Each structure stands twice: as structure tokens, then as C-alpha cells.
Amino acid sequence: MRLTTFILIFIGGIANAQSPVLDQYIHQGLESNLALRQQQMEIEKSIKAIEIAKTHFFPQVNFAPTYSVAFGGRKIDIPIGDLLNPVYSTLNALTGTSVFPQVENTSEQMAPMNFHDTKLEIKVPLFNSDIKYNVQLQKQLLLTEEAKKKYLQLELKANIESAYYQYLQALEAIRIFAYAENLAKENVLLNQKLLQHEEVLIDAKLTAEYELSKVQIQKKEAEKNAKVAKAYFNFLLNRNLEENIEADSTFFSQPPLLKPISYFQENALLSRPEFEQLQTGLAAQQTLVSMNEKNALLPTLFLGVNTGFQGFGYTFRNQAYMVGQVGMTWNLYNAGQKKLKIQQSRIGALQWNSKLEEAKKQIEMQIYKAYHDAVQSQEALQSKTLDLNRTKKVHDLVQSRYKNGAALTIEITKAQNDLTAAQLSYTIEKLSTWIKYSELKKASGY
After folding, report:
1. pLDDT confidence bin for 18, thresholds 50/70/90
2. Residue 257 near residue 12, CB atoms below 8 Å
3. In whole angstroms, how far apart are CA 95 and each of 90, 101, 189, 213, 361?
4. Which of 16, 188, 214, 269 could form a disulfide with 208 if both were Cys (CB 3.0 to 4.6 A apart)?
5. What does the alpha-carbon distance between residue 67 and residue 65 come to, in Å, rounded to a whole number?
């Protein structure tokens, strides 16, 4: 059973093998697309944000000198004379000398004049749960940015595939109209000969010339569509809009083989970047819940050291000092703000869970629609293949009869128009099967 399954998957993989030319263009587009380059810059910014968050685990050292010059302002009176002069007078009387002089009361300006504080400030976090959770949040934001890049890659890949198929459709349309033009030219020549032999009237020749002109106009329209399709494809690859495209039409000679819908549904759950983005957002919200819960219970601790020189005048002599601190911040009351933040972050987590479930339903619906569109396209191709074969036989029969004078001009004109329409319809549907398959692959994430 396992061997049979492996063989079926292997054969399906070969049958659905993509053109190596298209693979090369997809690789080129992924390398050069401007939107992807911008998203890569966002990823690099997120990496730097993680590194910045980690720096908060380490000490911070600041050089913080200050110099003060003050004029006026409040003063403090110091009655030093009133305190010492009576004592000094008594001592001089007892000793019969004047060794102890009289001093004046003084006053000092409260704002320091010619004062400097030249120091290093060192602060070391001893315990702060916010730092740890902030690092986790930044890592989860990085995963979100990486998921965005994967989404852009998936979108770009699908767009390049679709644009390539549309370009091939335009080329096939040109080929069909060129074939119709040749038929119309042959019909004009045939009617000219028949007119010379008086086997048809002039209106048959005029009708044939009108049909030729109409086909030539349609051919020019197809050529214009091919130019537009080429420009759009080159735009996706960030190339010159006029650059040539290598057309590989060999790989879509047969429609792609479809695996069961369950295969695409299971692959989507594993590969769609939207799930990764939403799961990362949910994890970030849960981290925020944990951070708020810790903040509600735990304090923050830090160690601080100030060391340097302080004093009047920049002498640095006998001015050295050092001050050490151990600090703690512990919020004891804030009117229930912590509890509300926890409740708010838990509601946010429930929202992310709801978004995840919604995304699963949406993607399941996308796959269901894309799968049945692909099935319907292949069924339509079978019908259009039969229509083309019938129309070709009818055209050959009518053309043979017309050459022998057994069919009317309106019959050959209708047969030629029907053949051109059938060829166009078949070609469009043939490439449509690959476009629908590309949309199915995009929906399933690969």
C-alpha cells in the first residue's frame, strides 16, 4: 500500500513537473523583486531589535559631568560670630592675650558657585522581568516578519506563474490568427480564380477580403496583448519591460494531474505562511500576558554606582568620591491597573485564537473553490478538445466542397470563423488548466 502511494505521488510529481524555464524565471523574480527586498530589510531591523533588547541585561555606564555657576538667589545666614565671639573674648581675658580673634557673621549662597560634579554613572539591573519578556517579544516579531516574507514569496511565485501562462496564451493566439490569416488569404485567391471563371459573383470575393481584413485586425490585437503580457511579466521580475521571454510550451501539452483535495488541505495547514504569522502573533500575545502577570507580583531591583570628582573649582585634589546604591521599585497600588492590563492581554490572546480559527475556515474555503475550479477546467478542456476536432473536420469538408463549387460563401466563412474560435477556446482552456492549478498550489501553500 505504501509503495503504491509512493508511486502515485512520484508519477503525479513527474506529470506536474514545472518548466525548467519557468523555474528559472521564478528564482530570478524572488531574487530581484523590490517588495521582497524591502521585507528583507524589515527582517534585518527585527534582528537588530532583538540585539537592542538583549543589551538591557548588561550594565549601563554614562559619563555625566556638570558645572554650575550661580548669581543671586536664596542665601543662608550663619551666625558664626554670635556663637564664637563670646567664647573667644572669655579665653582672651583668661590668658591675657588676643590669640582668639573676633569673627564676623557670614551668609552663603545656596546655589553653588564655580561648582563641578564630574562622574561616571553605572547602573546594573539585578532583576527585571520586563527585559526577559521583551527579548521574547522581539524574537516573536522576527518570526512574524519572516512569515510575511514567505507570504510575499508565495504571492509572487503564483503571480509569475500566472503571468507566464498568460503570455503563452497570447503567443498561441497570435499563432492561431496567423493560421486563420493564411486560410483567409487562400480563400481570397480561390475566390479570385472562381470569379475569373465566372463561377462566383463579386460579392464572394469582397466577403473573402473582408474576412481577411477582420482576421488581420484580430492578429494585431493579439500581438498587442502579447506585448502587454510580456511587460507585466518583466515587471514582476524587475526587468526591462521589453526584455525577451523564453517561451516553453512543451510542459503543458497535457493538463496537470490533481491529487485528492485532502492532500492540498493538509499541506495548507503545514505550509501557508498566514498560519505561521497568526501563531506567532498568538505566542507574542501570550508572552505579553505572562509579562503583565509577573509585573503584578514582582519588583525590579538594580545596583547603581556614582564615582568621580566633586567640589568647588576644577582642582581634582581631595575631590574624589564614590556612592553605591541598591534600589527597588515595587508598585503596591495603582487602582487595579495591573489587573486590568492582565485582563486586556488575555482578551487579546482570545482574539488571536479567533483569527486563527477564522483563517483555517477561509483557507479551507479557498482550497475547496480552487480545487473544484481546477477540476471543472480539466473537464471543460476535454469538451473543447472534442469541439476542436469536430470543427476541424467540418472546416475541411466545407473547404473541399467550396473548392468544387458545392458550398456557399457563407458556409466557408462560417467554417473558418468556427475553426478559429474553437482553436482559441481550446488554447485558452488548455493553459487555463495550468493557471487554475497554480491558484490551487498557491491556496495550499506550495
Report:
1. low
2. yes
3. 9, 13, 152, 140, 107
4. 188
5. 7
Mean pLDDT calculated for residue range 399-410: 77
Grid coordinates in use for 333? 497600588
Contact 32, 117 (CB under 8 A): no
pLDDT, mean of residues 57-73: 89
Q: How far apart are CA 189 and CA 345, in angstroms?
A: 82
- Which pLDDT band holds residue 95 (cuts at 50, 70, 90)? confident
What is residue 125's three-state secondary structure?
Answer: strand
Cα 211 from Cα 416, distance rounded (Å): 9
Helix (H) or strand (E) holding 311: strand 300-312
The DSSP-derived string for 15-60 is HTPPPHHHHHHHHHHHHH-HHHHHHHHHHHHHHHHHHHHHGGGS-E
Q: Which three cell numbers stand for residue 151?
A: 507570504
Integer Cα distance of 374 and 257 in angstroms: 10
The full length of the chain comes to 446
43, three cell numbers: 527582517
Q: Write out the DSSP string of 340-402.
A: HHHHHHHHHHHHHHHHHHHHHHHHHHHHHHHHHHHHHHHHHHHHHHHHHHHHHHHHHHHHHHH
Amino acid at 132: K
For residue 93, give the C-alpha cell: 581675658
Residue 35 C-alpha cell reads as 517588495
The set of cell numbers assigned to 63 is 559619563
Instruction: Give yes or no for a contact between 129 and 296, defined as CB atoms under 8 angstroms apart.
Output: no
